[in-house]
Specification:
Blueprint: H1 5-15, H2 33-57, H3 62-71, H4 75-94, H5 98-108, H6 113-128, E1 135-137, H7 152-162, H8 165-175, E2 186-188, H9 192-205, H10 207-241, H11 244-249, H12 252-291, H13 293-302
Helix pairs in contact: 1-2, 2-3, 2-4, 2-10, 5-12, 6-7, 9-10, 10-12
């Protein structure tokens, strides 16, 4: 790591506010100090890998000389360059779509025994349930782990198996998309527009629900974009390992081992658990809507 970057990184970490004892604190909000650092730190992590790539590409050329001079600069110069670059990189990852990481996570969750049991239970419920006569799956050939947020078939199985009958009734008659005519086939289907519509309605009448749902959503986004940061960081290390500078400094094996370590954390630690986080987000949204079901149904029916 460049000499000046280490105290710069440690100072940024030290400046981040300590998390409160709340159940699920908000991770990002426009204008909050905490939100700035949770965009900036993944970007700084990636920026260090970019600087290493530039140095390995031409350690004796102008680019390598710039990185060497930059690493020996004082804290003010490093901050003036590192802060905006790190934030821009972090913001670029934050603007990435969470659904891509979630699709990969849907496969990786099956690595975990708990993930296999969870989705096998949902698939088995659909295979044996008589509800298919009233409500069909949107795509019966697709396993439940391949669904996207808000996981309508998977949640249908979870609600039917584990929650009281009123919750199941609310899920079927309000949460799911309703047919336009009584004779039309009903499907276990809810798109993101309807899902977000319900969240916004509930947030307008229940401030605690709004806070909880926002925190859950930001937790998922933060985890997904850390997945992107680790993926690109490992890729940059692999590219750096084949560049001339890595051979001159004898770093090829070290860089490859670091890349493997970062991808190991990504594949074993983050990606499988990302799906659990996102399922929790969907479950929390449904719970908040059910808790405010009378108000929600009145708003849908009367508009006030």
């Amino acid at each position: 790591m460049p000499y000046g970057a280490a105290p710069f990184l440690l100072t940024c970490v030290a400046l981040e506010p300590v998390m409160s004892n709340e159940k699920l604190p908000s991770l990002t909000a426009t204008g909050e100090i905490r939100g700035f650092f949770e965009v900036f730190l993944p970007g700084l992590f990636l920026l260090l890998h970019v600087l290493l790539l530039v140095y390995c590409a031409a350690p004796t050329g102008p680019a390598g000389a710039f990185v060497s001079q930059f690493s020996r600069s004082d804290f003010a110069i490093i901050s003036a360059i590192g802060l905006p670059l790190g934030y821009v990189l972090g913001l670029a990852m934050r603007l990435g779509r969470t659904s891509y990481a979630d699709k990969v996570s849907g496969w990786m969750v099956l690595i975990l025994p708990s993930g296999r049991r969870l989705y096998a239970s949902a698939d088995k419920w659909w295979a044996n349930s008589s509800i298919k006569k009233q409500i069909a799956r949107d795509d019966p050939t697709k396993p439940t782990h391949r669904e996207g947020l808000p996981y309508p078939s998977f949640m249908m199985a979870r609600v039917s198996k584990s929650l009281p009958p009123k919750a199941r009734s609310f899920y079927e008659l309000v949460w799911l998309e309703q047919p336009s005519t009584p004779d039309e086939q009903r499907y276990a289907r809810i798109n993101l527009f309807r899902f977000n519509f319900f969240k916004e309605l509930v947030a307008s009448v229940d401030s605690q629900a709004a806070s909880d749902m926002f925190a859950a959503e930001m937790m998922v986004r933060h985890a997904a974009h850390m997945c992107y940061a680790l993926f690109f960081a490992g890729l940059l290390l692999c590219i750096s390992s084949v560049l001339p500078g890595a051979g001159v400094m004898g770093l090829r094996l070290t860089l490859l081992l670091l890349a493997c370590g970062e991808w190991f954390v990504l594949i074993v630690g983050l990606l499988p658990n990302l799906r659990f986080l996102r399922v929790s987000e969907a479950e929390l949204a449904f719970t908040c809507c059910f808790r405010n079901r009378d108000t929600l149904e009145r708003l849908i029916k009367n508009g006030n």
